[in-house]
User: What shape does this take?
Amino acid sequence: MQAETSAAVRKLDQDVERVLIDEASLKRRLAELGAAITTAYAGKDLLLIAVLKGSVLFLADLIRCIPIPHEIDFMATSSYGAGVQSSGVVRILKDLNKPIEGRHVLLVEDIIDSGHTLAYLSGLLAARNPASLQIVTLLDKPDRREVAIDVAWTGFSIPNEFVIGYGLDYDECYRNLPYIGILKPEVYSLSETGEPAE
Ligand code: IMP
Ligand code: MG
Assistant: This one.
């Protein structure tokens, strides 16, 4: 009985074609990013703004590598939903809790793909008159860019493949994988409708 139950448990690892960035590499790179950010913002009123939900794991580990006073806040935008293609449409689902005027803002993203999300968000935040506005992204897919984005710090530039894990999802799943992996194409080709998902 017990054996039957555990055999039926679906392990997320089974859907991963290969690991692109392992845990040790993530840890090493975050320490480097944290050190660079610490130097850049020493003595400044720093506010990190993470874009939900994908950036949550990155933010949580990154701020432990930034040993200077700072605050965090969150925004949420519409995402791809169940699809893997950008719709190019950005919608604010959750705004910041406080004004950012006069503060040094660092926008924390999980991945830049087409660039539409960040282009929209940086425009919106810049209009609120922060003292400065910069971007740190864990991952960048430069081949996919449709809008130019000025990124201060990038964790890893990656090829044009759909990745999951370490916060990144496919259809809200796989965020808890401790590494960045490439999803087996059959996992999403089965459910892909071809419609631009939200
Ligand atoms: P952009 O507006 O096309 O730059 O899309 C950025 C957002 O799309 C990211 O914040 C992610 O939420 C999502 N995204 C883009 N590429 C991937 C991927 O390979 N895996 C998971 N989510 C992705
Ligand atoms: Mg995101």
In short: Residues 23-41 form the longest helix (19 residues). The longest strand covers residues 104-112. Residues 194-198 have pLDDT under 50 and may be disordered.
